[in-house]
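G., before I forget:
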Amino acid sequence: MESKMVQTCHGQTVTILSHQTIFPVLLFCHGFMLANTCYTDLLKHIASHGYIVVAPKFYGFLPISIPDEVQKAAQVTEWLSPSVLPEKVNPDIDNLALSGHSRGGKIAFALALGKTDQKSHKTKTSVKDNPTPLKFKAIIGVDPVAGGSVSNRPQPEILKYIPRSFDMSIPVAVIGTENGNQPLGIFPVFEFLPLNIPPCAPNGVNHSEFFNESKPPVSYFLAKDYGHCDMLDDKLDDWMTNLASHMIKSGKGSKELMRKGVGGIVVAFLKFYLGGDEKDFDAIVGDPSIAPITLDPVIYVKE
Amino acid sequence: MESKMVQTCHGQTVTILSHQTIFPVLLFCHGFMLANTCYTDLLKHIASHGYIVVAPKFYGFLPISIPDEVQKAAQVTEWLSPSVLPEKVNPDIDNLALSGHSRGGKIAFALALGKTDQKSHKTKTSVKDNPTPLKFKAIIGVDPVAGGSVSNRPQPEILKYIPRSFDMSIPVAVIGTENGNQPLGIFPVFEFLPLNIPPCAPNGVNHSEFFNESKPPVSYFLAKDYGHCDMLDDKLDDWMTNLASHMIKSGKGSKELMRKGVGGIVVAFLKFYLGGDEKDFDAIVGDPSIAPITLDPVIYVKE
């Protein structure tokens, strides 16, 4: 398996993990204040099953607005083509899926919903310039988050609080974490200066609502006893991300198993909806105990 | 059709609308600060299709706590038996359904979920004294509301923000209103003293989440262009309710049609799940345009 860092035509840094022949493509959007490199182990796991994973870095030290992130994600999607990808990285560009973690989950859903015309301050070029945008065939939200609370949702407001209201018909998988909706409480470092850290994936704007607003076919997996960032690499090289990871309620289980669990769901889902092979997906939905982590509930609404 | 006001053994006033022979029973819980008599037209509509409708009045001028309301609803359920009901009101007590509007919807779900052991200040007798409580066969939420917001939900907290987490297996119908999540804005009377009236059925604690947390079989109907209290009687005899009804965003359509629409859904649902006749229910789910109001979306998750 190869792992490459390449520059897009928009100057963004993209990590590409791939085999040598033609493979389906997964675009992955990182979470808020998390580098794309935080997901290396998870994305390598997915790529090792025969996928080209494109994980753009949307910003450096200073975050950008969500509309700007959606624009950048759209531009990376446009840029994807055999001619611009590195040598021996040959994508099956018609077999393209979309995913994202945390705020990156919202970016992914916003992009799939076509919310690329929102007010964007930083991006000069418009994604609307491209007359034939690529189509996504499936979408996966990894503990997606739409805002700080129901009443504090930044633009674009994709949630409507009406079941199955997402205006898209591609298959959806939503993976939630049980501890994502729990606050860390008082951050230990600031015992003398109480700093109450809110939950990363609050009730009302998290995985549950993303599932509720998705049209069938939609599947849902809740990772019991795990936290919002437990699918990240064990060792985070960025000090900012490292600090942030300590301000989040983690689970007690092995993060390696969590990455295998999340990666396994993603691969089974992609095999089914990009590859037409439903065997692994049916197996995990039919008997979630085969997963390396506890998934409860597991829900699959076929139609 | 008869309409009777009777006293329960707990001293509560109950409106009973019935035919003369044995019929299934529907327990209906009124909304916050709304008298049970506000629903006379809607409940008459339901009763006219062959149901005994029991609509307890949980309190007078001063509201009681939700645990106290749940206790009272449980006590009314215990009290239901042929011997205590008025002459010629003969219930088929094994064919019992539960319903409620607004906060009464939460009362109904809390009762069905067995949340009768919550802290209750006013009720002296315990519903746990009854060794053989009656079982509900189906439940209907009419624009149910679980609290003021996701972070402000009074006990018992029935919502968990996990899909299908309600621990009950009876069939569920949820009827929502499109305008229920909208604030009235500035109340006209208080133009000189701005009073911003919040929505009655806020996002995150309303119909959508009740649907999401219900296990199949569950059906969902959203009444377009109608407000949270548009299924109440046109003429409300209580001044307090009358005032409250002006502080709620209403729809523009005929309230009579709304009552017929909601009543029709309730009757079709009860015919199916209490009577075993699915014809009307299948018809409305298959073609919602047959309803006198616009229902969109209509969702039915069979299993």
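The CA atoms of residues 87 and 231 of chain A lie 30 Å apart. The radius of gyration of chain A is 18 Å.

More on Monday.
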